[in-house]
Predict the 3D structure of the following.
Amino acid sequence: MKTYPEGGRFNGRIERTAGQSEPAWPQPPKARPGSPNVIVFLLDDVGFAQLGCYGSDIRTPNMDLLAAGGLRFRDFHTTAICSPTRACLLTGRNHHSNGVGIIQEMATGYPGYNGMIPKENGFLSEMLLAQGYATFAIGKWHLTLAAEYASGASKARWPLSRGFERFYGFLGGKTNQWSPTLVHDSHYIDPPRSWKEGYHLNADLADQAMRYITDLRTVAPDKPFFMYYCLGAGHAPHQCEPEWIERYRGRFDAGWDAWREAVFARQLEMGIVPPGTVLSERPPWVRAWASLSADERRLYARQMEVFAGFMEQTDHHIGRVIADLERRGELDNTLILLASDNGASAEGGEHGSFNECQFPNRVEPTVADNLKHLDEWGSVKSFANYAWGWAWAGNTPLRRWKRYLHQGGMSDPLIVHWPRGIAARGEVRSQYVHVVDVTPTILEALGLQPPAVLNHVPQRPLEGVSFAHTFADAQAPTNKRVQYYEMIASRAIWADGWKAVVEQPQGEMLTDEMLSRQKWELYHVAEDFSETRDLAAEHPDKLARLVEQWWAEAGKYNVLPLDSRMQLRMSERKPGSRAPARRHVFEPFGAPQFEYTAVNLKNRSHTITAEVRIPPEGAQGVLFAHGSWFSGYSLYVKDDRLVYVHNYLGLQEYRVVSTEPLPRGDCTLSFVFTRTGDHRGHARLLFDGREVGAGEIPRTIPAVIETSGEGQCCGYDSGLPVTEDYDAPFRFTGLLRRVVVEVEPGPGEDLEAQVRAAFTDH
């Protein structure tokens, strides 16, 4: 069969008839024979010390197996938060060069922060697709603007628009492991089973990953694939089956101080930290375990048992995919990289949280509140996160945690496994590596050059540098000379083994005068791995040069303007978001609208009117709903009555029920909320404009309804139900023509609560 490159010149022959002519077929790109598969496993909010092969006593045998058969990097760094890290990993360009200087929900109208990764910064998926690879994305995405999560929004930043042929996962920063908000390719779907039938997202992602490989091998036995496999674990919510949790019963009773010391001893013995490393001190805001009450110890120990069970269960399902590759005989020629996107997360606060929707709404759970739910921690009834003491310990021996630019925020595990391409087994590599270096490393390992033009768009040069040369040589020098960092106006720079860092208080207005007064710290991290000796006073000239170099890097990579004003980032309208309006019309059974595109009814007088036809035998089901049993509201019909429920953060349900049965035939069913004070009001139910029920709602959700994609729905309730009075989706069984929502102007946004929401969500 005669062929020519797809898009090239036809090299057959065309005469007047087919018998006189010679056919030729356009040939799509083919990978070189023997090209390895590539899998990137990306964990979420997993700290430096939370894998077995990095010193933890949490059982992660499959990840440990990858480490034993390959390499562990001790000096791998990220951006300290999720969306920017993912943008760096997939493009080989710095996060501000990608326009992803912060999480997508906080995008602003500056080139380094607009959330719109330009086509000139091609994705690794696009590069490998052009080289004949199949490309799959599994799990968390979080590279789409929040205003574009809706099904009807632009798909320009969904996975299939950036070089992935198939996608199965979730778009946002986190999701419920028992009842996720799933996207398959470019449309929303329901999970294949319910949580009542034993569904869990980790198992589903592994099933889908293996199914994608099976589908590929059915038609292309030798075609290599690139799989970008991003877990929701160990991000909150920490959720898994009881049998995994119970394996850790009593294992953390000694507390975070003792656990941290034991982990550090193992790290030294394993060589995962350099000889001479000092265990950094406990920060004053994390209380010593010995000072805690018996109730506090019981609560915090259980939180860590749940997290540990979640991590072992995650490892188990990663192991299923690895075993499937081995069964196929493909494991040896699969280049696997396994990493985390940032340090362990302290977003659970001092006491942890049973329901993460409470924190962004300014409800601080107490120890007593959390203890009421101790037996349900990790179950479908929980949306749990652990106390910040465990996040601190999870980054042993380092300082700080996620979002901060000391080592604990951005120093993470990295495992590389490729038996056919790497001779070393179980070795530790000490070269300085950044997540921006992953794409150039994979390209070099595959023998490929970064494309100058991709999909007809000239490409910017890669900004990362390959560390593939370290695979064969433990003593090889790092190729990096400098790496800058910026996160919410905190700044750091590494250059030739030295690091300067200054932490900016988050949320505070940053001024030139404040910049001039800020005190930078200086560490010789080549000799002080855990940043325990600030050398700023001893080497002021060195520090001054590094600070000056940081500003040069900032100008080069679109870092400016520095912005610590989190309220403005959250409130700024994004492209594609719904324009302010007082009247909104919803057609039934469409895809959910999420927090950033849903009609905002919080702290506002509003009316919800459903235009329906009730058949003679009656009807039931949801008319309009938003949220889940962790937080939300629902207007629905049950037992021939119209019902409105306002679920106040899982703490209280306020219910209004019609005093009369539903009318039959064509009618309108309405709910009217009249605001009578801050976050409270009077509710009425109406049939055809006639009042048939009323009640007070003394406390309403102030700021954030959903924390995991439980969207605003017309004619059904997605995911978990707002109330246990019905099982979701509880679709309306009568004829629902439309729902009209009318909203009065509100008193203004609770911006601090929105900031809290952003950080607990991501």
